Amino acid sequence: MTNFAGQFRIRSIVLFALGVGGAAVQSAFAAPVALPSYNVDPALTSVSGLSSGGFMAVQLHVAFSATFKAGAGIVAGGPYYCAQGAVGTATGPCMAATSISKPATSTLVSTTNSWASQGLIDPTSNLANSRVYLYSGTIDSTVKQLVMNEADTYYKNYIASANIFYKNNLASEHAMVTDYFGSGCSTKASPYINKCNFDLAGEILKWIYGPLNAKNTGTLGGSFVEFNQAEFIASPATHGMASSGWAYVPASCGSGQQCKVHVVVHGCQQDPTKIQDKYYRSTGYNKWADTNGIIMLYPQTAPSSAGNPNGCWDWWGYDDANYAKKSGRQMAAIKGMVDRVSAGGGGGGGALPAPAGVNVTGVTSNSVALAWSSVSGAAGYNVYRGGTQVNSTLLTALAYTDTGLAPATAYSYTVRAVDAGGQAGTASAAVNATTTGTGYTCSATTSSNYAHVTAGRALNSGGYALAKGSNQNMGLNNTFYTTTLAQTSAGYYVIGNCP
Description:
alpha/beta, Immunoglobulin-like, eight-stranded mixed sheet, four-stranded antiparallel sheet, globular
């Protein structure tokens, strides 16, 4: 372990540069509190992470698949147990992959299945209804895109392709991508948050939960909570974790309304000792959380001398040989945080059981029809799309049609029975449906680079025109250079004609 630690200490300074830095930080005189509990729907818990946090997010999602039921967002990470306990594998095939040296995905799948059969991780069948969003920048020089390709392959052993979205066409470096904060998109430097005119946090949450209310673009209405992580792991600094973690709690969740939970796992060099509060305040998640009842949980690492100088999460075994299993120290700590924050509502609401037989009876380009079996003692039923109630009045029928939807879009639904006192019972198992239609119609425009920039199809950067969304370089921003741009989705353009 000494040789591994020394080797990784040298290489990680170069390879794992990731960070967070300083807006308003809680007063130094305010002591961390015990993590509070809230009214949380346990079926709507999810996780996302970047770099070492991306690998950690995969570990949490796979090992605790009964907890992180809703899904996961993986940014510049890799397949489960990629490093297989070896730092050389971590910095080699799991980061600097080549066509010859890349993650041993088939072996990782076999290990996953074996550990699940032994109860060391949750049954892989729990993953089937999860939704996974994968992201890899085309110019990521730390975790190569080949590694994320293998993450895509790995997940497809357990999850249908329709439930996996892989965005791999944006020219971003190794960083968390936002549409409003950070360094230039091609920069690799602290705080490793890059402004690329793409709202990655929002896209992850929308993919996992389905259509959401518009994000809050003004002052947040909830509160930040600094909580004591030592409740969840003994001597946290000894095991690579900070003494405090953070949570963002929307006002609606703080007032007792039922909410979702999303865990956000930062990358190396992104703990508060490196970039203060930038990651948990400036990556875009809270804007969506505020208007959609999502409690954001931000566990925090800390640099340690024992093979972890950069405050990385343990995804290669620097602290714990069982790091990727449910028994892993950091893994169990985060699971404990989720259990605590979710304990306020008991997860089930009232005494009525979950409706059985929830199924999709029909879809159109803008609607989804549902039906379910009756629950004894129920006065009516509520239907939830992505965790948000969609019926305006209590339903007495055993069917409902949700309208006004977008074409060619996936949605997730649950149903709850409601008793005579208005108390909603346990949520049903989620069912998924995809509306028909072609969705967005691609359109192409040929014009001068200057005209593209003027029309908002491209951006001016240092005298060059960059296609909006993809950031592809079109050449000089003037009237002499002509480019064809295809708009493949709202606000997203690529060079060339429509496919």
